[in-house]
Amino acid sequence: MANPQRLRYCPEVTEAFPFLNPLNSIPGVRAGWIERVPDLPITGDRDEAMRLLRPHHEEFVRNFAGPDAGWWRAEQVHGTDVAAVPGSPQVTAPDGLPVVPGVDGLITCQPGIVMAIYNADCGAIWLADRKSGAIGLLHSGKKGTEGNILQVALDEMAARYGTRPADVVAVLSPCIRPPDYEVDIPAGIGAQAERAGIGEFLDCGLNTAADLSRFYSYRKELGKTGRMMALITKDIPA
């Protein structure tokens, strides 16, 4: 899906969120994040929401990576499987765009690959290996965290790219937190990062259920809500 053009740096979508600084300070790595789309009413289920959000997210990707950029997305089935891209099979999602079926995480070591994960209370985890250049993006909610998708991704990155956890920078996105949810997903992910020996882990500390002006919250909005989007890519070398 990725276009072999040089990816275009767009400061307003990569520098607006300080919690992404540990990733964006790595040469060649860029991480992005889109919050709630203002004044876009969403009253239906996930499929309807994704269809409504599609043009906004496509515009964001164009600003992030260039006008012809495509991107790789995980189907997100609340599991722990992780796929390497490109090369993984894809199916068409209800919003008309392709996804890698059955997975909740994507990894790559190839420049020019844009990867995306959606969330609306679950955590998105960005990963970047300072040494090997491998990157990853994970969807870790209650079930993904219970199954330790973070460790699954680290193991897969180690097997494919020689990644060592000590060389990895990991960032956790805004997600739901106590007292708005009975399970402390961020605490679980933080503990997993520590046990794995990740070199640098940052939890942004933001609660999606606490600020509906900025975030979508599946729990707070009783399922009638949209999705935020996390992105990561590696620039194509000169």
Automatic annotation (TrEMBL):
This protein's superkingdom? Bacteria
Is the keyword Transit peptide assigned to this protein? no
Q: Which CDD domains match?
A: YfiH (cd16833)
Which Pfam families does the record associate with it? Cu-oxidase_4
Query: What chemistry does it catalyse, as a reaction equation?
Result: S-methyl-5'-thioadenosine + phosphate = 5-(methylsulfanyl)-alpha-D-ribose 1-phosphate + adenine; adenosine + H2O + H(+) = inosine + NH4(+); inosine + phosphate = alpha-D-ribose 1-phosphate + hypoxanthine; adenosine + phosphate = alpha-D-ribose 1-phosphate + adenine
Q: Does this entry carry the keyword Oxidoreductase?
A: no
Give the family per the record: Belongs to the purine nucleoside phosphorylase YfiH/LACC1 family.
Q: Which PANTHER family match?
A: PURINE NUCLEOSIDE PHOSPHORYLASE LACC1 (PTHR30616:SF2), UNCHARACTERIZED PROTEIN YFIH (PTHR30616)
From the UniProt record, which GO molecular function terms apply? copper ion binding; hydrolase activity; S-methyl-5-thioadenosine phosphorylase activity
Residues crossing the lipid bilayer are none
The protein in question is named Polyphenol oxidase family protein
Gene source species: Luteolibacter yonseiensis
Q: For this UniProt record, give its keywords in alphabetical order, as a comma-separated list.
A: Hydrolase, Metal-binding, Transferase, Zinc
